[in-house]
């Protein structure tokens, strides 16, 4: 059966560069992969009181069900104040609890960081990786994916036309697919 890749984007902005890059990357997976965006915009801010089943917001159950169905997670994130945007960190937290029910564990993951600036959201990329270590996500190490000056890479319609950029994106997806296949053995 097809492998399921859940895409998590660390920006809710309508015209988000991260969302546009996520769409481009999703289009580079081979046949046999279902790549779908997981909506994290409706998740209430995590509160440990919600670990009590009777108090958990309705949005949590659906999100956790969706996470449990995935084979792998692709994280595309901008950087806010040199770290991971709260909306994405919140999603990590919601998916990691109640204690003993970490839904990220043992799944494959890949991190792509995006910025219109020169520093390519390195800080967000590595803060995210720090959490993924603890969450026991089997994260792709190489190639690392730091996307600087992202606004210069995207055409008006959200496409990427520079062949060198497309080749780089394809190399990320190919390495991620190889990791997923290796973990499935
Ligand atoms: C930013 N931005 C930003 N950029 C960066 O490279 N490093 C940073 O630390 C920050 N910090 C930051 C904080 C906050 C609160 C905002 C709103 C923005 C700029 C950011 O990269 C830019 O807004 C991107 O366009 C956000 O990504 P999306 O929404 O286009 O995906």
From TrEMBL:
Per its UniProt entry, which superkingdom is the organism in?
A: Bacteria
NADPH-dependent FMN reductase-like domain span: 4-151
According to the UniProt entry, its GO molecular function terms are: FMN binding; oxidoreductase activity
Which Pfam families does the entry link to? FMN_red
GO cellular component terms attached to this protein's record: cytosol
SUPFAM superfamilies to which the protein is assigned, alphabetical? Flavoproteins (SSF52218)
What is the designated name of this protein?
Answer: NAD(P)H-dependent oxidoreductase
Q: List the source organism.
A: Vagococcus allomyrinae
Q: Lineage of the source organism?
A: Bacteria, Bacillati, Bacillota, Bacilli, Lactobacillales
């Amino acid at each position: 059966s097809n492998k399921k890749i859940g895409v998590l984007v660390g920006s809710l902005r309508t015209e988000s560069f991260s969302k546009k890059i996520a769409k481009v990357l999703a289009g580079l997976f081979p046949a046999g992969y279902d790549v779908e965006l997981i909506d994290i915009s409706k998740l209430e801010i995590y509160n440990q009181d919600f670990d009590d089943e009777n108090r958990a917001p309705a949005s949590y159950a659906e999100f956790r069900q969706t996470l449990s169905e995935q084979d792998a997670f692709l994280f595309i994130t901008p950087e806010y104040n040199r770290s991971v945007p709260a909306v994405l960190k919140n999603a990590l937290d919601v998916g990691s609890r109640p204690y003993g029910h970490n839904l990220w564990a043992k799944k494959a993951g890949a991190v792509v960081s995006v910025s219109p600036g020169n520093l390519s959201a390195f800080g967000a990329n590595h803060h995210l990786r720090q959490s993924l270590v603890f969450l026991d996500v089997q994260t792709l190490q190489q190639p690392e994916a730091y996307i600087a000056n992202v606004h210069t890479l995207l055409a008006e319609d959200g496409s990427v036309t520079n062949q060198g950029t497309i080749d780089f994106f394809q190399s990320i997806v190919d390495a991620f697919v190889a990791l997923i296949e290796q973990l499935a053995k």
